[in-house]
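Q: Hi! Curious about what AB hydrolase-1 domain-containing protein looks like structurally. Here's the sequence.
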Amino acid sequence: MKKLLFALFILITFLVSQMKQPSIDKHSENNNESFIEVHHGELVFSCRSAGLENTGEAVILLHGFPETSHMWVDLLHQLSSRGYRVIAPNQRGYSPGARPGDIKEYSIKNIAEDVFALADAFDFEQFHLVGHDWGSAIGWAVVALQPEKVLSWTAMSVPHMKAFSYAYKYDKDQQERSKYIGFFKLPFIPELYFSWNKYSNLKNIWNKSSPEQKGIYLNVFQQRGALKAALNWYRANIGTTVEAEDQIAFDDVTVPSQLIWGNRDMALGRTGAELTGDYMKGPYRLIELDAGHWLIQESFPEVSSAIIEHIEKHTEIKNK
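A: Let's find out. The predicted structure is below.
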């Protein structure tokens, strides 16, 4: 009897451990695109990947609003050709299997925890991190929560969270640029606005994207609940009281970092970009480009070169 009870205990322990651990399930095809599906609790994330068979360091690429992991397709292959193992997830709300209904589920901390779960699923003990727009906000959280996991960090467009918070509160220029946020936080109205007339207002945002990319983006946002989930990032995090367990102390950063910012960005002004350096205690540089918000589409040669240079500078093992 004791042996039977012991065997049952071992079996239950194993099953529970498997339930808690994120795992890679399978490859899936969606609209002729290939994804790896990753389970994290009840959520299933669709991830683009490249070079997973390589032996080099890992790189995670985080998209923002209203884009998907497709924004990274060219950079994915550039990095993998240099020996890196690269993933670009469709983040919480953008993956069909990762759209919880509660607004609180879209806190920055929850989404940052998704990044750690994805890293664990791919056995990335450490990784280089790149983010744009909301992906940058999540990246700043990742760096704040577990800096020891991040080999290098590239933020695009969005400054350090304390720098943005200061500009949002005190800088008139940034306040003007951020007026759209109040609209995005309204219930159901922005969903109607963006989906009106076959999503014409959403398509207008993608004016720097190729027709192919616009179609891929639209395929995601036409899915049930996708637009609401993407807007919930604003509703959960800006001008909202964040619950104690979801609060993050965005302290000074020691991870080697760079901020790539376009001086014609319609949403993010100079004050936050220039203040970011005040919170950097490790290697840091600000790269100012004569570009707008959609940096990867507008200035791909300059952006990709800066990202690759930064990653290679802080690569600890020789990629093969």
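A: A fun detail: The chain has one domain: 27-313.
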